[in-house]
Design a protein that fits this description.
The chain is an alpha+beta fold. The chain has a single domain, classed as 4-Layer Sandwich (Deoxyribonuclease I, Chain A), CATH 3.60.10.10. The protein contains 8 helices and 17 strands. The strands form 3 sheets. Strands 5, 6, 7, 8, 9, 10, 11 and 14 form an 8-stranded mixed sheet that branches. Strands 1, 2, 3, 4, 15, 16 and 17 form a 7-stranded mixed sheet that branches.
Length: about 325
């Protein structure tokens, strides 16, 4: 008998706490400056409800079993997001694993997961610093324990942005790629060479960029991952890239920045924890897609951008299915 899990990732775009939040440090308040002015509790909660409406419809209305998110400010907004999803899915028992990073804008990575299927032991949560002159998000690793007793290493990623120029900022993402590759290998050294690992996130680069191919050791070739001795990762997004789909639109060009990468212990057809072939998708509910020639996502806005209360995020979510054997 097998269990099939619906796994998703979403950059939820600037899910910040209210303007005068008592949960925000003075340092972060100074860093945000005027951009947070006008961000009321009502706008925050409206955005959360918009996001929750999409999340709850995933997996044919059953919701995700495991969801990674980025661009969340703190555990307060993540908990409110979880609660908003739970209101729509009363049969679920969602828990949160959140990493409070040192990012200069205070945006973090978190996981929502069904606690009847997974646990996230506190001593198996790790924040891996991406060394950079200016603070950026750490890679957040959680070694989940499945309900069948297996360790499943999941890495949440939100790599340095392309602000200042794609090529000018490329070295920062190269460092992030090296960091991911190192801790993937380290995880297999510590927990065993048969440990399944998934890296998901907004990598701010495309599957073909050097940060992913050369530094994170990802590839489009499944056979290369299965047969090699180096800790390569199979990038599952190449088929989506070939179809011309994107998760983020910049100047109306589709960019596939949000991706799933798996190691050889999830790539084998008989692996105890394995990806379901052909299950990867960009989640594009009709109400979230802009009308017109360029079908990008409809953002909610805020943070110096016009607010659209009927919007969601500037990224589409991605999802896939993972199967675990007895």
């Amino acid at each position: 008998m097998t269990s099939t899990y619906y796994v998703a990732w979403w950059n939820v775009e600037n899910l910040f706490d209210e303007e005068d939040s008592p949960r925000r440090t003075d340092k972060l308040t100074r860093a945000l400056g005027a951009s947070i002015i006008g961000w009321t509790p009502e706008l925050r909660d409206q955005k959360i409800n918009q996001l929750a409406s999409v999340i709850a419809r995933m997996n044919a209305g059953a919701g995700p079993d495991l969801l990674g998110v980025c661009e969340v400010e703190n555990d307060f907004v993540v908990d409110r997001l979880r609660d908003a999803v739970a209101l729509r899915l009363p049969g679920r028992s969602y828990a949160v694993a959140h990493a409070d990073t040192v990012d200069h804008r205070g945006i973090d990575i978190a996981f929502l997961f069904d606690s009847t299927l997974f646990t996230a032991p506190p001593d198996q949560r790790f924040q891996h610093v991406v060394m950079r002159r200016t603070a950026t998000r750490e890679i957040f690793q959680v070694n989940f324990q499945t309900h069948r007793g297996r360790t499943w290493a999941v890495f949440g990623n939100h790599w340095p942005s392309r602000s200042g120029g794609e090529h000018e900022s490329a070295s920062y993402r190269a460092i992030a790629g090296e960091t991911l590759a190192y801790f993937h290998q380290r995880t297999c050294d510590v927990h065993g060479s048969d440990t399944p690992a998934l890296a998901m996130g907004d990598f701010n680069d495309e599957p073909f960029d050097p940060s992913l191919v050369r530094h994170a050791l990802s590839t489009r070739q499944r056979a290369k991952v299965l047969s090699g001795t180096s800790p390569r990762l199979w990038n599952l997004m190449w088929r989506t890239l070939g179809a011309g789909e994107g998760t983020f639109y910049f100047h109306n060009f589709a960019n596939l920045l949000d991706q799933f990468l798996i190691n050889k212990n999830m790539a084998g057809r008989n692996s105890p924890v394995r990806v379901v072939s052909g299950s990867v998708e960009v989640v594009r509910p009709p109400e979230m897609v802009a009308a017109g020639t360029y079908p990008g996502p409809i953002p909610f806005g805020g943070m110096r951008k016009p607010v659209n209360k009927d919007g969601y995020s500037d990224h589409f979510p991605i999802a896939m299915r993972v199967r675990e054997s007895d």
